[in-house]
Design a protein that fits this description.
about 400 residues, alpha/beta, Aspartate Aminotransferase, domain 1, Aspartate Aminotransferase, domain 2, 2 domains, 7-stranded mixed beta sheet, 3-stranded antiparallel beta sheet, 13 helices, globular
């Protein structure tokens, strides 16, 4: 690898995308693989959103470069959404639209993290968090939780982790991969810990906001007055609007951070796809009753999958409050074997389930919790029933 940079050589492959490649390889051999590995809705993008994209194409007005921070009417729609749903006031200069929430996260990290800075990441965490921090030269510090704590960091953990090098705190709520939702009381407790440290920013990933099963209402750290100027909210259209492939995300941030993100984006991608942005305008300003329908389907599927996993001896479950994942503890199977293969860890178990059960899941090691695997329930009831049955049969072979 003499001609590749140390930066890229040190970068880990995305575990979710890596498993998708392996699943496709089996499918190309004619094997029916049930894919519960990729984090995307199984619903089509609503028709009125697609129609807006078609109309934008037919108008002939949107074939030039789009504004780097996003079209003004999309930014206006985002501002109105944040005011209506989150009681947050922003100006247009505080919003930057990017090519998916993943780019939004990367923009912020590259803008605020210097080499050697520490970034506190609530763990388990989405697979790209730590790698993006490393790309910026930062040091990811994982605040570990597990199924026994409901995957929730305590204020005491947060306090203990803070050092003079701490620059940023990162979390998602609802959480990918656990589905944990941080309550207003919990976020206020974290805010009280952070209050004296005015140099520490918070990066709040709220991409799963609309996939919330109602026990814990959505709350944003930016709603706490003394934290608003230190919090960057990341959101987008992929999950709540079933628009993963359209690639539209955004930040709402203090103006100096939004200005920096705009400057950075102008140098390496420029503005997001013009047609995708026109679709996003229709999404954020139009009827979103479909989001409630999707949410109800996910809630039903969550209950279905949990009930089926609870029937498998050795699988430890909990009840996710949002997103469309369950993250069971499968460590009881470590050390067991079948047909000459010994399961040493969650990557081994994920590969075993793919090869033996033809079900694609993602190992928990990639999310910071090696005892677990991530299972998406963004699939039909029939697929979920079949997948859980295949998982049960495969796990029962281990001894």
């Amino acid at each position: 690898m003499a001609y590749l940079s140390d930066r890229i050589n040190a970068l880990a492959e995305s575990a979710t995308l890596g498993m998708a490649v392996k699943a496709r390889e089996l499918q190309e051999k004619g094997i029916h693989v049930i894919k519960l590995n990729v984090g995307e809705p199984d619903f089509p993008t609503p028709k009125h959103i697609c129609e807006a994209a078609k109309q934008a194409i037919d108008s002939g007005k949107y074939f030039t470069y789009s504004p780097v921070p996003g079209y003004p009417d999309l930014i206006k729609g985002i501002i109105q959404k944040l005011k209506k749903d989150n009681q947050l006031e922003y100006s247009p200069k505080q919003i930057v639209v990017s090519t998916g929430a993943k780019q939004s996260l990367a923009n912020v990290i590259l803008c605020v993290v210097n080499p050697g800075d520490e970034v506190l990441i609530f763990s388990p965490y989405w697979v790209s968090y730590a790698e993006q921090v490393k790309l910026a030269g930062g040091i990811p510090i994982e605040l570990k939780t597990d199924i026994s704590t409901g995957f929730k960091v305590t204020p005491q953990q947060l306090q203990k982790a803070i050092t003079p090098k701490t620059r940023l705190v990162m979390y998602s709520s609802p959480c990918n991969p656990t589905g944990a939702v941080f309550s207003e009381a919990e976020l206020r407790a974290y805010a009280e810990v952070l209050k004296p440290y005015e140099n520490i920013l918070v990066l709040a990933d709220e991409i799963y906001e609309y996939i919330n099963f109602g026990r814990i209402p959505h709350f944003s750290m930016a709603q706490i007055p003394f934290m608003k100027e230190r919090t960057i909210v990341v959101n987008g259209f992929s999950k709540g609007y079933a628009m993963t492939g359209w690639r539209v995300g955004y930040i709402a941030a203090p103006e100096y951070i939004a200005t920096a993100a705009n400057k950075l984006q102008g140098q390496y991608t420029s503005g997001t796809c013009s047609i995708a942005q026109r679709a996003a305008v229709a999404a954020i300003t139009g009827d979103n009753s479909f989001a409630k329908e999707m949410n109800e389907a996910y809630r039903r599927r969550r209950d279905l999958v949990k009930s089926l996993l609870d029937q498998i001896k050795g699988v430890k479950t909990y009840t996710p409050d949002g997103a469309f994942y369950i993250f069971p503890d499968v460590s009881d199977f470590f050390g067991k074997s079948y047909n000459g293969q010994t399961i040493r860890n969650s990557p081994d178990l994920a590969m075993y389930l793919l090869n033996e059960g033809h079900v694609a899941v993602v190992d928990g090691e990639s999310f910071g919790e090696p005892k677990c695997i991530r299972i998406s329930f963004a699939a039909s009831d029939e697929e979920l029933k079949e997948a859980c049955q295949r998982i049960k049969i495969a796990l029962e072979k281990l001894s």
